[in-house]
């Protein structure tokens, strides 16, 4: 899947790709490389698919990673998504990496979702501090149109919000 990312320094739009890790057979990111999760460990769980985002001019560098799961074979679930350490904060090299990965997960929710779950993307927000969790949930609500389920850590992006993200960040 072709996606659009932006080089922070120049503002130039770059072509990037999201592919299944099975297609490229590269080592997945880990905490020893500054990532928040050990993707190799989490990718091994049943019913999970792992995707990486990279730029064709530097295919050896993973810019972001996504683990998508079908819970109970019908519910689309974004188990893990993270951008590379070099794309975080003010010093980030690329913009829109997270947006592209989340839009791609939304696309997968339309492709794989079944029945009442078609087009809905669920995920959980876990942070060590409750105030950080609340800030992140507010960000997901405003930026990705995500809705919080009751007073849980679970959020969902409804089909309308997913379609908007797909239209904005994925090259169809």
Mean pLDDT, rounded to whole units?
92
Distance between the termini: 8 Å
Structural class: alpha+beta
Strand content: 25-35%
The unreliable regions are none
Dominant shape: globular
Number of H- or I-type helical stretches: 5
Order of helices and strands: EEHHEEEEHEHEEHE
- What is the helix fraction of residues, given as a range? 25-40%
What integer value in Å does the Rg equal?
A: 15 Å
| Extended strand count | 10
| Biggest pleated sheet | 7 strands, antiparallel
Question: Can you put this structure into words, describing what you see?
Answer:
With 172 residues, the chain is α+β, with helices and mostly antiparallel strands. It contains 5 helices and 10 strands, in the order E-E-H-H-E-E-E-E-H-E-H-E-E-H-E. The protein has helices at residues 21-24, 39-43, 97-112, 130-144, 159-169, and strands at residues 2-7, 13-20, 48-54, 64-71, 75-83, 94-95, 121-124, 147-148, 154-157, 170-171. The strands form 2 sheets. Strands 1, 2, 3, 4, 5, 6 and 10 form a 7-stranded antiparallel β-sheet that branches. The chain has a 3-stranded antiparallel β-sheet with strand order 7-9-8. Helix 3 (97-112) crosses helix 5 (159-169). The longest helix has 16 residues, at 97-112. The radius of gyration is 15 Å and the shape is globular. The mean pLDDT is 92.
